[in-house]
Design brief:
Shape: elongated
Number of helices: 3
Strand content: under 5%
Low-confidence stretches: 32-48
Radius of gyration: 22 Å
Distance between the termini: 33 Å
């Protein structure tokens, strides 16, 4: 399969002053700093389909925090998964707000991803809030 090349983005420095604090001539093109590094290639995020929208990735970042605080993921710094219902509830509320505020402005895929994540998170949250331990889904079904 042939890989599509991404269009290059030209960034123009329009600041009035240079890094040294001197006034810049607005007619001259700003030279690229030698210390400026090239952007690293994009690293695919696990669980995100290639070509997914920035909105989907944004939603997944909140969902990941919610799953982390519902004890479904190990902490990045190591250790046992911990349960923090307050933080998980806040993340779920943010996702619910995004669903409400973006109604009618999302692609069908974005609507499906957001709806499925909210359903899963709300079920897990309620199971933990009622004091029960959530059952793991049966992979055979």
């Amino acid at each position: 399969m042939e890989e599509k090349s991404k269009p290059r983005i030209k960034v123009t420095d329009r600041r009035v002053f240079t890094q040294d604090g001197e006034r810049r001539n607005p007619d001259e093109e700003s030279p690229r700093s030698e210390s400026a590094a090239e952007f690293p290639p994009e690293v695919p995020v696990e669980g995100v389909a290639e070509g997914s929208s920035p909105f989907t990735e944004f939603v997944l970042s909140f969902a990941e925090l919610a799953f982390l605080n519902l004890g479904k993921m190990a902490r990045p710094e190591g250790g046992e998964p911990q349960l923090d219902l307050d933080v998980a509830g806040n993340m779920i509320d943010i996702l619910q707000m995004l669903k409400t505020k973006t109604r009618g402005n999302l692609t069908p895929t974005e609507v499906q991803v957001l709806g499925n994540l909210l359903n899963q998170l709300q079920i897990l949250f309620l199971q933990h809030a009622k004091g029960g331990t959530p059952k793991e889904p049966d992979p055979s079904s």
